[in-house]
Design goal:
With 375 residues, this protein is an alpha/beta fold. It has twelve helices and 16 strands. Strands 5-6-7-8-9-10-11 form a seven-stranded parallel β-sheet. It has a five-stranded antiparallel β-sheet with strand order 3-2-1-15-16, sandwiched between helices. A two-stranded antiparallel sheet has the order 4-13. Helix 1 crosses helix 3 and helix 9 runs parallel beside helix 10. Bound molecules: 2-succinylbenzoate (OSB) and magnesium ion.
């Protein structure tokens, strides 16, 4: 498989409803799409870097520049046996996992199309139906959050995750549990707490949560291990796990009992599979996280979620929760049982909509063998 060129596109897409985490509110997304042109086949992927460096240091501009100036040039002109070979070629560039993931995943998509196989099979998935939960942001009022939860439960979602931060936590969780004593419920702090807040964090044990996701610093493992010993509630790590070695360290230190796998945060499908396998060997269940993706990233999350250790419902939910019109056909739909059935079609089973993508594109650039050329 020869990589001939890489196209970058930035789209602007308004979110149907704002999404607020402990680090701020998003009303729209700048979406970075990557196309790998390989032997007449086009592989597509989405870079999950956000509009601002809050979730991690990466954001749209660093991803674009790093792909254009460093990552794409290491791949263009090379002939690969498998998509997973891209990871070694890009390893000289330190960090920038979301940028790397977009390239690697675009090549996986191309490989699946070239081999006329479903992507999930190429990834050695086994599950034919994946279990879905939702992540619900911080709202303007407690009542608004309760209403949202009611809507999502009625739609069939199997697990509700709410975002928390100091001041939007114990009181609202009390109200949720009072109304729904038995639902599968978890929370995500996105690093909003410090070790000095142990008394507050211990109160989370009253809510029978499936997990508390990333309570402490985004780059920490040791303090999470100390905290896990003080809590009954299972800690799940998201931001802290950037590669399989981090998962190994976290498991060995007892920093978490569950791990969230995000293919963008981990630098691509091959490292995501490695984290999955490490967790499986140690009896740690994983689930697939989300980054407010369009259908392109969402379709990749679905393929990954077919691996057997994805034992908990993921943040993989329907297109219509985020977008007035998604950029794939069919849109991602969730059954009334809160599941997505995985297609046997070649690639992801979701086709891109070129006209809509063209309409939403605000800039694009194709990188070829000799330097970059604007399109
Ligand atoms: O921490 O899981 C997170 C969205 C943006 C950044 C970080 C996170 C999230 C979510 C949304 O929780 C999950 C989704 O895509 O539905
Ligand atoms: Mg998270």
């Amino acid at each position: 498989m020869k990589i001939e060129a890489i196209t970058l596109r930035e789209l602007r897409m308004p979110l149907k409803y704002f999404f607020e985490t402990s680090f701020g509110r998003a009303e729209s997304r700048r979406v970075l799409l990557v196309t790998a042109h390989c032997d007449g086949v086009e592989g597509w992927a989405e870079c999950v870097a956000s509009d601002a460096p809050f979730f991690s240091y990466e954001w749209i501009e660093t991803a674009w520049a790093t792909i254009r100036d460093f990552l794409a040039p290491t791949l263009i002109g090379t002939t690969l046996k498998n998509a997973s070979d891209t990871a070694a070629l890009m390893s000289r560039i330190r960090g920038h996992n979301m940028a790397k993931a977009a390239l690697e995943n675009a090549v996986w998509d191309a490989e699946a199309k070239q081999k006329q196989q479903p992507l999930w099979k190429l990834l050695r998935g086994t599950l034919r139906e994946i279990n879905c939960g939702v992540s619900i942001g911080i709202q303007n009022s407690h009542e608004q959050l309760l209403e949202k939860i009611e809507t999502e439960l009625a739609a069939g979602y199997q697990r509700i995750k709410v975002k928390v931060k100091p001041g939007w936590d114990l009181e609202v969780l009390t109200k949720i549990r009072k109304r729904w004593p038995d639902i599968l419920l978890s929370c995500d702090a996105n690093s909003a707490y410090k070790t000095g807040e142990l008394d507050r964090l211990r109160k989370f044990d009253d809510f029978k949560l499936l997990m508390i996701e990333q309570p402490l610093w985004d780059d920490d493992i040791l303090q999470h291990a100390k905290l896990q010993r003080q809590l009954k509630t299972s800690i799940c790590l998201d931001e802290s796990i950037r590669q399989a070695r981090d998962a190994e360290a976290a498991i060995e230190l007892g920093a978490c009992r569950i791990i969230n796998i995000k293919v963008g945060r981990l630098g691509g499908f091959s490292e995501a599979v490695a984290v999955h396998n490490t967790c499986q060997q140690h009896g740690i269940p994983v689930w697939c996280g989300g980054m407010l993706e369009t259908g392109i990233g969402r379709a990749h999350n679905i393929a990954l979620s077919t691996l057997p250790n994805f034992r908990l419902p993921g943040d993989v939910s329907a297109s219509k929760r985020y977008w007035a019109e998604d950029i794939v056909d069919p849109e991602i739909e969730v059954s009334p049982r809160g599941t997505i059935s995985v297609s046997d079609a070649v690639g992801t089973g979701y086709q891109i909509k070129p006209d809509l993508i063209q309409k939403l594109t605000v800039r694009s650039e194709t990188i070829r063998r000799r330097g970059a050329a604007a399109v």
